[in-house]
Amino acid sequence: MYIFDGKRLAPNKAFTDSEGRQYPRNWLKLTTIEEKQAIGITEEPDPVVASYDQRFYWSAENPKDLDQLKEYWTAQVKQTAGNLLAPTDWYIVRQAENSTGIPADVLARRGEIRTFSGEKEAAIAACADVPALAEYLTGSDFNRWEALPESEPEAPAEEPTAEAPVVEETTTPAE
C-alpha cells in the first residue's frame, strides 16, 4: 500500500500533491519505486487482518452464541438425515399399508443414517465452546454419512524359502 502525505493512495485513482500537481490514475502503476519516493510516496505493507470463519465468529475475537450455533447445526444434521432417508420412505409407507417387507439392505442403510445422525448430534451437544464446535464441524468426520470400509487384514508376510536351484536347459545337437 502506498502512503502520500499521511494518506493511503488508492490504486488506479488520480491524486494531487500539496503543491497542486495532479497525477493521473495510472501514475502509480507506470512509475518506479524511485520516482514514487522522489515525490514523497512511501510503501508500507498491507495491514494483517486476522481471518475467522464467519459461520462461527462475528469477528476474529468475537464468537457467536454457542447455544444458538448448536441449535442451528443440530437442525442441519437432522435435515441432512431426513434428506438421506427420504428416497426410501416409500418402503415404510408400503409396509404400513399392505405389510410388504422392506429389503434388509434398505433397513440397514436407514439404521446407519439414524446412527450417524445421533452421533453427530451428540458430538455437537458435547462441544464445550465455539472453537471446539468449529473444529468438529470442519473436520472430516462431520460430513461423512457413509460407513468407512472395513480395513482388510494384512496378509501375513511370506516366510523366506530357499531358492530352487536353477536348472539349465540343455539341448542336444540335432542328428
What would you say this structure looks like, in words?
- This protein is mainly alpha-helical and 175 residues long.
- It has 2 domains: 42 residues, no CATH class; 81 residues.
- It is built from 6 helices and 7 strands.
- The strands form 3 sheets. It has a 3-stranded antiparallel sheet with strand order 2-1-5, with no helix packed on it. Strands 3-4 form a two-stranded antiparallel sheet.
- Strand 6 and strand 7 form a beta hairpin.
- Helix 3 packs antiparallel against helix 5.
- The longest helix is centred in the middle third of the chain and has 23 residues.
- The chain is elongated.
- The chain starts with a strand and ends in a 38-residue tail after the last helix.
The residue ranges in which pLDDT falls below 50 over 5 or more consecutive positions are none
- Main β-sheet: number of strands, strand sense, barrel status? 3 strands, antiparallel
Give me the count of strands: 7
Number of helices: 6
Proportion of residues in β-strands: 5-15%
Query: H/E series, N to C?
Result: EEEEHHEEEHHHH
Distance between the termini: 95 Å
What integer value in Å does the Rg equal?
A: 35 Å
Strand order of the largest sheet: 2-1-5
Please tell me the total number of domains. Answer: 2
Approximate helicity band:
40-55%
Name the assembly state: single chain
